[in-house]
Design goal:
This protein is mainly α. It has 15 helices and no strands.
Length: 393
């Protein structure tokens, strides 16, 4: 048991390390792409605020990871270790390929797969059918309303991409209606359903936030000289990048915290699910170290291939992404910080028109988002079956 516990803690910290390695791009892609900070300074700043994030926010996301996905009765050390291994492998391979994926979703998928192999369908905390139907109804109602409004506006302006705007309007309408329903308590989303919903909602909220903020900035500074505007937002972007890094650390660093605490609880070392201070510290250090070493291939994809950025656009993207992360962290949802900043970059790019965004690159990124949970769940499931055969478990 002690050996397995040590392996589990090591893998959890390795997971946070490769998480920071991949998600370094989330915090620094825009500030590097706009040449506001050098890569070394940007990474050092991101590492510091990623470390500080868990101390600013509560550990509610860690509790979701440790108690809200798999029934705690089935979350034995073997399930956790194999789920972690599957997640680490997926994040590492994605980082090597330069694909910005969700480390949080990789962990969720790995845990679900290994739990299913151990305890069957009942080991996972699935949402009730009533809550699922209610969520779907709100999603469709908001989506249809948004599609009608945005397609009408696009046709009024004689936009050639009005059909694409209809699809975008559906996503925006659904994503804007869901948060008020969650805050008001109409939709008490939690666990797996909340994670799946925010695969769609978080990038779209980032897109809308960055787009609206960008339009306000363009309106306010429309008569300002370009040099003066660049100088102002170059300074502001340092603060927006720090704000985003803080949100990133507060959400993603808690993945390892939740897993390590679950391991300690399963081993009987903890009598209740409370994250110990030393777990917070080592988890934050692991993600900070990964961020410091950086994931430069992902930086290239995030900062330059989606759309070209200026300092004011980088400021809007980081601020929009930071707001989204703060919101979802407050509700304990382990979301993809990659999704949030990707959506924000798309949103600020869209202020220059539909064609300003490289939607082909976006489609590749979205495909990786969709496949992450199913692939890591499959990997975790198969790995656990092999483990049972090899060790007669």
């Amino acid at each position: 048991m002690e050996t397995l516990l040590a392996i589990g803690i090591f893998l959890a910290l390795l997971f946070n390390f490769v998480n920071g390695l991949n998600d370094a791009a989330n915090s620094i892609a825009t500030v590097v792409a706009t040449r506001v900070l050098s890569p070394v300074r940007a990474v050092a700043m991101a590492a510091f605020f990623n470390m500080a994030g868990p101390f600013v926010f509560t550990t509610v996301v860690a509790k979701t990871i440790g108690k809200g996905i798999v029934d705690p009765g089935f979350l034995i050390p073997e399930v956790i270790v194999i789920g972690l291994g599957s997640a680490v492998l997926w994040v590492f391979l994605s980082s090597y390929a330069g694909i910005p994926i969700s480390a949080s979703h990789a962990l969720v998928g790995g845990l679900i797969g290994s739990a299913l192999a151990w305890g069957g369908i009942g080991s996972v905390l699935w949402p009730s059918m009533e809550l699922f139907e209610k969520t779907l109804a709100v999603f469709i109602a908001g989506g249809v309303t948004g599609a009608l409004l945005l397609s009408y506006a696009a046709r009024r302006k004689h936009e050639e991409h009005w059909v694409e705007y209809t699809g975008l309007g559906f996503l925006c309408g659904a994503s804007l209606l869901l948060p008020p329903a969650i805050v008001s308590g109409v939709l008490p989303l939690k666990g797996i359903l909340a994670i799946i919903v925010f695969i769609v909602v978080s990038p779209v909220l980032g897109l809308v936030s960055a787009y609206l903020l960008g339009m306000v900035v363009i309106r306010l500074f429309r008569n300002s000289p370009a040099g003066k505007m660049n100088a102002l937002f170059s300074r502001l972007q340092v603060f927006s990048a720090a704000f985003y890094s803080l949100g990133h650390g507060s959400n993603d660093a808690q993945n390892a915290m939740g897993v390590i605490t679950a391991l300690l609880f399963a081993a009987g070392i903890l009598t209740e699910f409370v994250v110990p201070p030393w777990v917070i510290i080592v988890s934050g250090l692991a993600i900070a170290l990964g961020t410091f070493l950086g994931g430069w291939r992902v930086v290239e994809t995030m900062g330059r291939k989606i759309t070209k950025l200026r300092p004011y656009q980088g400021f809007c993207a980081e601020t929009g992404g930071g707001v989204v992360l703060s919101f979802v962290t407050a509700f304990g949802v382990p979301v993809s910080t990659t999704h949030a900043i990707s959506g924000s970059i798309m949103g600020i790019g869209a202020t220059r028109g539909y064609s300003a965004v490289q939607w082909g690159i976006v489609r590749k990124i979205v495909t990786a988002w969709i496949l992450t949970i199913p692939l890591t769940a499959t990997c975790g499931y198969i790995a656990f079956l092999v483990f049972r055969v090899v060790f007669s478990f």
